[in-house]
């Protein structure tokens, strides 16, 4: 292996993972860091030129990777979302797309100075909002389900449709003058219809075949994941044989078919594939941006800058406004969707190929298509990546602006715990399978949810509530462990807790393994029976605010109470567990949720003051 290949592997893989981790730690959009790293390594320092190093296979590998990404996105398109988001999705995919195309072409011609042919191609390319950018942003944005569905469906569905549209525009522009309009109706249009039908058929047939293999136990577990990835690339390749862009449609439909056919065992495979897609997205953004030539960047001009501003600030908002007139979308949703439209890898790949073909055909200003598209991609990544969460908060389209807690299992002491957390101003949801145990909490104003957390519907219902941490508090230690293991991929294994299984030492516990349960809530000896007994004896949970004056006294009187949770303003939630190597003691300004004995006066618990009830904006408790 030559030195250039080693440099590529090191910078792309290590740099991609480092960018993802930095983005997670500092709550930044990872796509922006990946795009910037690619520009630095490629056109900036000229350390990487992937197409020169890999050769003609580079664009083939990029296309296959994009197929896997849209396949994974298709798995997130559940038709049950149409009940609440169907009208908006239809308007964004069927109505907004042609409007944005027309407005984009007009802007490219009159603002960017492109001739009509390249302008129409530019408008077709920038109608897509790439899932490679949108989906990673949605994972960290905590948007309300309906708004997230709008952006998710638009990005995934419009991606292949936009690629096909760009291909169709390109073929029309490259038609010979003597072919006339008859060639469009006799050749191109039938070819488009047949290719689309084949792509849909390939996707549905692939999903049906996988379901039959899985439900009849005809595929061993180690081969299921490779089978899905292989079929996703196979349907892409077969679809592409018919028409450019049809392969992306086939991969998307394949994912949608699997998601809506309820294929058993797909959940575990999907989580592994999501991790793989994170790696693929990281590699693609670095490689594609590193492959940009300085000559392309030299074409950037004031006219392209003006065109970029027109696309971002006029074309997209105006197109969404016109497409959603008379719809059920609220003005907040229309403003948000009209602004958030980051472009991604498909737009870059299509621009690279189409721009070259138009230039070779002699179209005036065709060389400006690629730099103009990349200017839109880079600008939307920066502007929309950094503004998505703040704008969503400003428009009140997020589930919660602060870390939230879910408590599974409604009993007297867990209801008391939920009320104490709620009074302290932290969003909390109390969950149980029965309605009766939830009634007292609902009357106290605590948001409640009646659902079975081990069911698919229950887990999806919880995802629609603000919840970043989970505590399972039912009397059944096995059930608590199953809930934590089932929801750990969603919350993170370090954020799911359960009441102690009832042993004084965890190393002597012979029940569920650590991978099949949550972290112990508090100390090992604080089991369900102890907490229930103490609550019956009059112990109650209180939210105690620690001040600078009372900090020393609070830290030296821990034996008088049981401390379970520390709420840190602006920093999140710290749940105490014996399995944490070193817990951070509370500091001045923190609020500690403690179980306090009845003999302690409310205002004299270690000198700390009980927190008065804090109203949480938008926390109306839903009906059971």
From TrEMBL:
Domain Cation/H+ exchanger transmembrane, first and last residues per copy: 20-393
Signal peptide: none
Bilayer topology term: Multi-pass membrane protein
Entry superkingdom: Bacteria
Any Pfam family the entry gives: TrkA_N
Domain RCK N-terminal: 406-495
InterPro entries, sorted: Cation/H_exchanger_TM, Na+/solute_symporter_sf, NAD(P)-bd_dom_sf, RCK_N
Residue ranges of the TM segments: 6-24, 31-48, 54-77, 89-110, 116-138, 150-175, 187-210, 275-296, 302-323, 335-356, 368-386
Statement: the UniProt record of this protein carries the keyword Transport: yes
Keywords assigned by UniProt, alphabetized: Antiport, Cell membrane, Ion transport, Membrane, Transmembrane, Transmembrane helix, Transport
Cross-referenced PANTHER family: NA(+)/H(+) ANTIPORTER 1, NA(+)_H(+) ANTIPORTER 2-RELATED
Name listed for the protein in its UniProt record: Sodium:proton antiporter
Lineage: Bacteria, Pseudomonadati, Pseudomonadota, Alphaproteobacteria, Acetobacterales
């Amino acid at each position: 292996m030559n030195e250039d290949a080693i440099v590529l592997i090191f910078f792309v893989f290590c740099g991609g993972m480092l960018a993802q981790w930095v983005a997670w730690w500092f709550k930044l959009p990872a796509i922006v860091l990946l795009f910037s790293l690619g520009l630095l390594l490629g056109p900036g320092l000229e350390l990487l030129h992937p197409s020169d190093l890999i050769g003609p296979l580079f664009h083939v590998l990029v296309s296959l990777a994009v197929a896997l990404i849209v396949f994974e996105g298709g798995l997130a398109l559940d038709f049950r979302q149409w009940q609440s988001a169907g009208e908006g999705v239809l308007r964004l995919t069927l109505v907004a797309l042609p409007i944005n195309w027309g407005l984009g072409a007009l802007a490219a011609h009159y603002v960017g100075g492109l001739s009509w042919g390249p302008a129409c191609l530019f408008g077709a390319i920038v109608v897509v909002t790439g899932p490679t950018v949108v989906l990673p942003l949605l994972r960290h944005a905590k948007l309300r389900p309906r708004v997230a569905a709008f952006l998710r469906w638009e990005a995934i569905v419009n991606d292949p449709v936009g690629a096909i549209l760009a291909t169709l525009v390109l073929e029309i522009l490259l038609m010979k003058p003597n072919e006339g309009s008859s060639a469009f109706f006799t050749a191109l249009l039938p070819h488009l219809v047949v290719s689309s039908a084949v792509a849909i058929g390939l996707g549905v047939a692939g999903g049906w075949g996988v379901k039959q293999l899985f439900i009849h136990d005809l595929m061993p577990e180690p081969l299921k994941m490779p089978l899905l990835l292989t079929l996703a690339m196979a349907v892409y390749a077969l679809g592409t044989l018919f028409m450019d862009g049809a392969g992306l449609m086939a991969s998307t439909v394949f994912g949608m078919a699997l998601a809506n056919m309820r294929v058993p065992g797909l959940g575990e495979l999907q989580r592994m594939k999501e991790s793989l897609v994170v790696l693929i997205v990281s590699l693609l953004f670095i490689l594609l941006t590193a492959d940009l030539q300085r000559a392309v960047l030299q074409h950037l001009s004031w006219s392209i800058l003006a065109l970029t501003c027109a696309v971002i600030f006029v074309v997209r908002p105006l197109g969404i406004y016109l497409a959603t007139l008379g719809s059920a979308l609220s003005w907040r949703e229309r403003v948000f969707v009209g602004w958030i439209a980051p472009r991604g890898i498909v737009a870059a790949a299509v621009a690279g190929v189409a721009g070259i073909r138009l230039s070779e055909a002699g179209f005036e200003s065709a060389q400006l298509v690629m730099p103009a598209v990349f200017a839109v991609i880079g600008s939307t990544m920066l502007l929309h990546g950094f503004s998505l969460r703040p704008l969503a908060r400003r428009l009140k389209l997020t589930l919660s602006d602060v870390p939230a807690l879910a408590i599974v299992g409604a009993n007297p002491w867990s209801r008391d715990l939920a009320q104490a957390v709620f009074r302290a101003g932290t969003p909390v949801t109390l969950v149980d399978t029965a309605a009766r145990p939830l009634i007292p909490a609902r009357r106290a104003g605590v948001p409640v949810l009646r659902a079975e957390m081990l069911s698919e519907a229950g887990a999806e219902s919880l995802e629609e509530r603000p919840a970043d941490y989970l505590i399972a508090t039912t009397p059944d230690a096995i059930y608590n462990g199953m809930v934590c293991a089932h929801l750990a991929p969603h919350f993170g294994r370090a954020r799911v807790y359960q009441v102690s299984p009832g042993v004084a030492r965890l190393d002597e516990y012979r029940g569920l393994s650590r991978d099949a349960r949550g972290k112990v809530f508090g100390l090992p000896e604080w089991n369900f029976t102890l907490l229930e007994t103490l609550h019956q004896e009059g112990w109650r949970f209180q939210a105690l605010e620690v001040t600078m004056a009372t900090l020393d006294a609070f830290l030296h009187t821990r034996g008088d109470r049981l401390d379970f949770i520390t709420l840190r303003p602006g920093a999140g939630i710290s749940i105490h567990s014996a399995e944490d190597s070193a817990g951070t003691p509370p500091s001045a300004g923190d609020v500690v949720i403690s179980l306090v004995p009845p003999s302690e006066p409310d205002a004299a618990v270690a000198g700390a003051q009980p927190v008065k009830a804090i109203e949480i904006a938008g926390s109306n408790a839903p009906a059971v």
